[in-house]
Amino acid sequence: MKKLSLALLLAVLFISCEHQESGEMQSGELHEEETEGTHEETRSVTLYSKNYEIFTEYGALHQGEPSNFLIHITKLDAEYSAFADGQVKVKLMFNDGDQQETAVPAKVAGIFNLTLTPEKAGDAFLNFIIQSNSGSDILDTEVHVLAKGETDHHVEESSGSYVRYTKEQAWKSRFNVAEVRTDSFAHVIKASGEFLAMPGEKQSVTAKSQGVVLFGSKDLVQGKHVQKGEVLFTLSGEGLANNNIAVQFSEAKTNFEKSKADLERHQRLLTENIISERQFLETQSRYFNDSIRYYSLKETVGTCGMKVRAPMSGYLHELNVSEGAFVSPGNLMATISTNRVILLRADVPQQFYGVLDKVTTTTFRPAYTHKVYTLEELSGRLMARGASVAENNHYLPVYFEVVNDGTLLEGAFAEFFLKTDPEPDRIVIPMTALIEEQGNYFVYVQVSGESYEKRAVAIEATDGIHAAIASGLQPGERIVTEGAMLVKTATSAALPAHNHQH
């Protein structure tokens, strides 16, 4: 049995090794096909336009000798996707002439191969011409073509250890890179708070008489949508000796019918001058009172008892009674909320009282989600700033009104980022670019097409969506704004700048 187990184990290991070698061979063949014949003295350059990023690796340029180019082109759109729907040309421009070649698409979308044999030597411009249906972009860099016998004094820049994340990896994942820019950013006050119902958007349903509660439908539960006028409950007086609504309705009907008959009879007697006008007016007044009470009860009382209807359309926010319970006049039975407009209350610490009058807007994150909302996207507005401290929690309340898009839950807690008037010329980056490690924050700075430097930054303030950076970044640098965790988990290696080979 032991010999059999050992044999099976060796067989599994053999198959695994064979499979791994096969996969490596296929990958190697692909990149070998893309870069076959590349000069050993490899250069690399990363260029940017408004629409594209070009990362190119190529052999040193020698007059009369072929140099192979491996060109990666990324569209700088929301997807950071590979460019595969156009043509790429490379033009080598000297003062007294130029030469041009057209790149050939490789098997991997976004990668192009090209061989260029410089006809002249000296300083030149290398132009990359990208043509697509939407237009053309030209990106250029200065190069030097070595004459025959000329010594190459170029030294590739090396800047320590970088994290490698290839273009192929970036194109297949949720990844993006953006240029660091200055922007206006407001002073932020962090506070906690709650979502409340707006006045007028919530109504209570109370009992108008005593009785036993009967539900209007079997699916009457909290959260159900009800229409205005819909019967929610019936208050039955069956079995009650006092204040029986059915008895009251019967008495009201009897009194109404009697006063109506009296009025008709007294009208005839008045025309015959048998009764005085005063007697007629008393009968008429009694009829009016009896008719008001009768028709009032008739609208709400059925054969089973008094009907309790929804005063407005909305959602059943609270259900305060159970079927079969006894209620008295004025007892709260249910609460209906439209849930269309939400009142936001941010509880601000007293230390910020001096700047509270400068608060103009807010962003907020509900406790049940990671999404951060802006006041503007929900058509919101600032309603009021607290002028006194709340008695129960010793905070200054600030109120905002927003239109509920269906994702805000009344009664939920939230984190608020109250903003004052914005200040200009601040380095602002999205929160998605930040990696937190033990209370410290880092970003990944793109130093070349596929090389990234992990750099510590100091955060000055945040509104939950963006962060103002106090130190660690400069305008014009490019950082990973989406997919930073992917770069973090990528293999870190001592990678000299511009020395990556496919």
Explained architecture:
This protein is of the alpha+beta class. It has three domains: 42-155, Sandwich (Immunoglobulin-like); 179-196 and 341-493, Elongation Factor Tu (Ef-tu), domain 3 (Beta Barrel); 206-331, Orthogonal Bundle (Helix Hairpins), CATH 1.10.287.470. It is 19% helix and 43% strand. The protein is built from five helices and 33 strands. Helix 3 (245-271) runs antiparallel to helix 4. The radius of gyration is 40 Å and the shape is elongated. The protein starts with a helix and ends in a 9-residue tail after the last strand. The model is unreliable at 1-39 and 492-502 (pLDDT under 50).
Catalogue the unreliable spans: 1-39, 492-502
Shape: elongated
β-strand amount: 35-45%
CATH architecture tag of the largest domain: Beta Barrel
Mean pLDDT: 84
| Sheet with the most strands, sense and barrel status | 13 strands, antiparallel
